[in-house]
């Protein structure tokens, strides 16, 4: 569990709330038996395509099974991802390198 001192250095109240949400997501993933790093990679891949609040709710740690995350990584979906993200229209490969 993260200590309170981690939030002492937030630049703004909004930043502190964002940090708390992020840490809460990680701790909830751990509590549900998920590997936090794999869960977050899964979440960051799936979230841009969530269209409804139900889709977003199903991406929370309570709505994702360990086997679903393992299957996602076994299929190689995390290795090469190309496509147009719906929010900003930019094209990325592996979410790190901007293509065009």
Helix-strand blueprint:
Layout: H1 13-31, H2 36-46, H3 53-58, H4 66-74, E1 82-84, E2 91-93, E3 97-98
Antiparallel strand pairs: 1-2, 2-3
Helix pairs in contact: 1-2
Structural notes for this entry:
With 100 residues, this protein is mostly helical. The protein has one domain. Helix content is 45%, strand content 8%. The chain is built from four helices and three strands. The chain has helices spanning 13-31, 36-46, 53-58, 66-74, and strands spanning 82-84, 91-93, 97-98. A three-stranded antiparallel sheet has the order 1-2-3, with no helix packed on it. Helix 1 (13-31) crosses helix 2 (36-46).
What is the compact description of this entry?
By secondary structure, the protein is mostly helical. It is built from 4 helices and 3 strands; from the N terminus they run ααααβββ.
- Spatial arrangement of strands, main beta sheet: 1-2-3
As for the number of domains, it is 1
Rg over alpha carbons: 15 Å
Number of contiguous helices: 4
Task: Kindly list the characteristics that best describe this protein.
single chain, 100 residues, mainly alpha, three-stranded antiparallel β-sheet, disordered C terminus
